[in-house]
């Protein structure tokens, strides 16, 4: 479902080693995520980062799920937040993460009356980014300021392309690098004293 986002590395980051092109990612890895080359961003990574940035307790995460009329337990939440090499780790499915994001919108902006939107069975980075934008009620200029806090440059035209419908000629896929930097910018904005804190400390 998710892509590595390494396609966005500039040509200067490419070197020839043993006759093959290899991307040098070690100097451009975004703080707060596993420092491995070609790392693919997962639902668990994003949930873990959202929980940290907004200082959410496990019980609050359960409450957020319930605000989307989706049942989750603290035991499930604890397992979703484990690192991948932990025996207790549980993979967070797209439909589960979509339910969390729908609940997060209600949590931040107030739960609307009536039947809640059904969580999508499949997610991509554009959809995750869009749901976070809605939840935080962010305008384009707000998002660009957040990216600046992560020292990530993006034009307003490039940003708007992420929120186009997939069939639109101006639609652009949101790579992992973009979503990682957005989350990093949020961390630097909301928890500036923890700037540069890596994932092993979260």
TrEMBL record:
InterPro entries: YehS-like. PANTHER family: CYTOPLASMIC PROTEIN, CYTOPLASMIC PROTEIN-RELATED. This is DUF1456 domain-containing protein. It comes from marine sediment metagenome.
């Amino acid at each position: 479902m998710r892509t590595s986002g390494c396609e966005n590395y500039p040509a200067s980051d490419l070197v020839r080693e043993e006759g093959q092109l290899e991307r040098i990612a070690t100097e451009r890895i975004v703080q707060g995520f596993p420092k491995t080359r070609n790392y693919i961003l997962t639902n668990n990574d994003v949930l873990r980062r959202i929980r940290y940035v907004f200082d959410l307790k496990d019980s609050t995460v359960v409450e957020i799920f319930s605000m989307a009329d989706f049942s989750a337990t603290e035991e499930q939440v604890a397992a979703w937040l484990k690192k991948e090499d932990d025996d207790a780790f549980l993979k967070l499915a797209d439909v589960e993460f979509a339910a969390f994001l729908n609940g997060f919108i209600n949590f931040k902006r107030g739960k609307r009356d009536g039947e809640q939107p059904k969580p999508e069975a499949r997610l991509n980075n554009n959809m995750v980014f869009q749901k976070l934008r809605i939840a935080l009620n962010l305008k384009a200029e707000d998002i660009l300021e957040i990216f600046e806090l992560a020292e990530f440059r993006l034009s307003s035209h490039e940003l708007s392309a992420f929120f186009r419908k997939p069939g639109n000629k101006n639609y652009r896929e949101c790579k992992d690098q973009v979503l990682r930097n957005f989350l990093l910018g949020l961390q630097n904005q909301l928890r500036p004293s923890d700037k540069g804190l890596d994932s092993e400390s979260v």
